Amino acid sequence: MEQATSPRILVVRPDRIGDVVLSLPVLDALRHRWPGAYLAMMVRPYTRSVPDRNPCLDAVIEDDPEDGHRGLAGIIAQVRRLRAHRFDTALMLMPTMRHAWMLFLAGIPRRIGVGRTIYQALTFTRAISREGYVPLRHESDYCLDLARALDAREPGGRPLIEVVEKEKLEARKILERPEGMPVIGIHPGNGRNAPNWTAERYGALAKGLQERHGAKIVITGSAEEGHLADAIKSRLDGPVLSLAGRLSLDELIAVIGEMNLLVSSSTGPMHLAGALGIPTVSIFCPLPARSPQRWRPLGGRDLNLLPPEGQCPTCDRGPLCDLSGITVDMARDGVGQQLG
Questions:
Q1: Is the dihedral of CA 226, 229, 231, 236 positive or negative?
Q2: Which long-range contacts (CB under 8 A, 24 or more apart) does 55-60 make?
Q3: By C-alpha distance, which of 319, 322, 220 is closest to 262?
Q4: Residues of the domain holding 31
């Protein structure tokens, strides 16, 4: 597709933290194709810290349909805001009726979205289908299909997330890293959006990692996940720090960037670690919609565990599957491999 010498492109991803992280290679591909382009990303307010740290972006635009941009008045205000940026192209990585109409009313001439929906047809949005892909591809590659539709086909190899030195120093103060002791993060929650271990299993793993590696265990999570952190801490005798409910997203990004490794299920902090170049050990469900083939972290330093017998006994419980087929010994060995 022909494009202006320096296009003005908006990338829309009003989704969760991990989904936003997996969209960042699109920005890299666009910047590599058009070094002088004006690039912006529209996200939910609570994920803003992720694109704020991407070196490819010129602007981050928040969309808050539940509060500041609620209802028709909020959409009209956002339309005016988008018009002021004079975008000529918009990529809608997560299809929503709200954004299809918003981009249409903003007068952005070139609009491309994922999937085929009635509201995309009504707004004359070009559709990129996700149907019929064999084998299953990674989510970031699906996202890159929209960049490829603009002839932005190769990434430039820029960092996906950058942390400034001041933030690194503050993160080191929070962690209180002992000399010569590895810091292993455990993020035991995931908002019940994917299969996950019980807190007791994470606790058993943490105890084994302290015994084998002399590690300091750092537990992260939301305030609502504090009980998971407490259950893990109760099993430990060695150094442990619970940061559940204590960190902003900015601080979480910086803290993960100072860890030696992060253990978790398929969740946002896992994707943050991958984008920061931190090794991960992650437990995954083998079913296609939840598999590491689709959702593994970026960065190439990941080790992803699957039940050796295929589906777990609780796979029929969907996101509430407890991944009982993945043993604590498997995870402990995986951590040893990654630290080695």
A1: negative
A2: 55/158, 55/159, 55/162, 56/24, 56/27, 56/28, 56/30, 56/31, 56/158, 57/27, 59/85
A3: 220
A4: 8-148
pTM: 0.94
Query: SS3 for 17?
Result: helix
Spell 251-290 as b/e; 16+ CB within 10 A means b. Answer: bbbbbbbbbbbbbbbbbbbbbbbbbbebbbbbbbbbeeeb
Residues 281-325: pLDDT tens digits?
A: 999 998 888 899 999 999 999 999 999 887 766 677 667 788 988
Domain total in the chain: 2
Asked which of 148, 180, 211 is the last residue of a domain, the reply is 148
Give the integer Cα–Cα distance in Å for 335 and 212: 10
Look at residue 64 in the predicted model and tell me its pLDDT. 95
pLDDT tens for each residue of 138-197: 999 999 999 999 999 888 899 999 999 999 999 999 999 888 899 999 999 998 888 899
Element (H, E) at 188: none
Domain CATH code at residue 235? 3.40.50.2000
pLDDT higher for 314 or 74? 74
**179: its two tokens:** 């000399």
| In a domain? residue 154 | no
